[in-house]
Structure formats: C-alpha cells, structure tokens
Amino acid sequence: MTETITRTTGSADVRGLSRWTAAVILPIGPAAVALLRYFLPYDTVDDSSTMTSKVMAEPGRMSLVLWLGFIALLTLVPAAYSVGRMTRRRAPLLTAIAMFLVVPGYLALPWLAGTDQLLWSGTEAGLDANTITRLAETPHPTVAVAGVFFVLGHVLGTILLGMAMWRSKVVARWAAVAVIVSQPIHFVAAVIIPNHTLDLIGWGLQAVGFAVVGWAILRLRNDDWDLPAVA
C-alpha cells in the first residue's frame, strides 16, 4: 500500500521564515545566560546569607539578571532543538542522548530562577535580611531535583551536542569545539574558581557556536531544511 504526498497549491511556504527564525534565535539564549552570569551580583558558591546581602546591595543588577533569565528561558529550548535538527541525520544517537539531557535541563531553569526572584522580591518588599535568608534556605524539594536535571542537562548535554556537531560536520570543527568546551569552562568558573568573566567566556563560546549553526541553517535550501506542506 503506498501513500502519495503532494505539494499544497496556493498555500504559503513558511519554511524560509522558519529557517530565519531558527537562525536568529539560536545564539540569543546562550548569550543571555553569558551576560546573566557576568552581571550576577553573587557567586554560585556563596551561602544564602551572603547572596541575600549582595542582592540587597544591588537590586537593580539582580533585576537585570532576572530579565536576562527570562529571555534565556524563552529561547534555549528552541535553540537546542534547532541544533539537534541539523545534526540528527548524521549523528542520530549522539543527538538523541544530547536532546534527552539538555531539553529537560533547560526546562528546569525556572525552578532555579525562583530563588533569584525571591531575593529580589524580598528586597523590594522591604523585608529584613534574616527573613529573606530564611526563605531562601527553605526551598521546595523540587528545587534540588531541578538542580540535578539542570547540571547534568546543560553540562553533559551541551558537550554531547557539540560532539554531534563535530561528527555531523554541519559546521566548522572550531565551532563544534567551542560548544564542547563552553560548559566545562562555565562549571569551573561557577563552582571551582568563581570568576564571572570566565563564565561570560564559557557561555559566550556556546553562543558563538550556536550562531555558526544559525549561519549554516540560513545557507540551506528550504527543501533541505524541511518537507513542503502537503495537500
């Protein structure tokens, strides 16, 4: 039994718009996180009391971080999907594992951003430092679970996604390497040797690598990007 697929006549072909949208979105999320990590008023390894005092000293900076986080939340998953869409034909297993890790990791971000929102809101509401600290130290158990999903997802998942870029040869090898090393650099800068400039470089490398994927998408023909609509 065979199925015949025919092109739709008289309907708009949105594949070009889809390609351009994917290309534009690709670097936005990692770039937003790069700036977020640079402007973050505290270090990841700070205790709750120190985090509270630093946010209370610079609430405007914390507000900027929250806006950047919001932008990242809207764009990181579509960006990862677009990279996977480019690599899955030539590196299907690597791409599948990477997406299995990185998408849930990015989706866990809102739970982690909740602490930052609490610190800013408590400051704006005029709460004292002890009260804000106590609230920050009493998270719901899902926050810890989200942390595990995020760390495994965005570190290991991004490494595998970069390896899929390397194997599939959809971009220059240097761009794949930039994505592969980006999150290990972030991990060192966030956890081992707190350094916001190094963190900016780490996430910035992922933004550059994703931008190169975006350029590769723009160079595709519509038929190479997606199937045409059918009647």
Automatic annotation (TrEMBL):
Q: Which UniProt keywords apply?
A: Membrane, Transmembrane, Transmembrane helix
Q: Which domain of life is it from?
A: Bacteria
Q: Where are the transmembrane segments?
A: 20-40, 60-81, 93-113, 143-162, 174-194, 200-218
Q: Does the keyword Membrane apply?
A: yes
Q: What is this protein called?
A: DUF4386 family protein
Organism equals Kribbella alba
